[in-house]
Every structure is written in C-alpha cells, then in structure tokens.
Amino acid sequence: MILDSNITIYSARPEYIQLARYLQTNQALVWVSLISTIEVLGFSRLTSKDKLTFETYLASVEILPLGREVITEAIRLRQQRKRSLGDSIIAATALLYNLPDEQHP
Cross-referenced SUPFAM superfamilies, in alphabetical order (predicted)? Predict the structure, then answer.
C-alpha cells in the first residue's frame, strides 16, 4: 500500500499507537511517495522527536520517485476533480504502481 502523508503523521500520535505498530510490522508492504516525504518532514509543527521518528521510519520503507509519468497522471487527476497537488501526486503514484492508497486511519 502507498501511505498518504496524513497516515504517516497520525502514526506518531499516542492515540494511534495501533496504527504505528501496524506500519512497523508491515514495512515490507508499505511504499511512500516522494511528495509524502516532503509533506511529512516539512510539517510545520514537527517536533525534534517526531522528525527523528519519521526519518527513521521513512528510511525503512521504499520511497517511490516522482517521474514524468507520475506528473502526467497527477495532472490528469487534478483536471478531473478538485484535489490538492499532494493528493494528486500520491494518487497518481498509487495508480501507476498499482498500489492501494491508504488515506485515513
């Protein structure tokens, strides 16, 4: 599955400990879009502890690149319906790599 940025951010919150455990247990089944890496590590309220947690976690999963095909598909998706740039890129990445897009816990 490809993780939406929110899923990764939620996993650091104490109330989502089961989500964090699930993601740790299933690292081999998890992919992250390059845009999610930027969104997660660029989050304005990121604490030093969370930054270290996210950097460690992101180093353990495969980060999918942002290539020309992803960009073309993201443009097509944005033209179809209003969505954020990040969501369009993540959805395009999921479609091109044939991965489910996990958006919310």
Answer: PIN domain-like (SSF88723)
CATH of the domain at 25: 3.40.50.1010
How many distinct structural domains can be found in the chain?
Answer: 1
Q: pLDDT tens digits, residue range 1-55? A: 898 889 988 888 899 999 989 988 988 889 999 999 999 999 888 899 989 989 9
Strand order in the sheet with 101-102: 62-64, 31-33, 2-3, 101-102
Range of the domain at 72: 2-102
Q: What is the distance between the alpha carbons of residues 47 and 41, in angstroms, rounded to a whole number?
A: 10
**Token pair for 79:** 């033209």
Cα(10)–Cα(72) distance, integer angstroms: 29
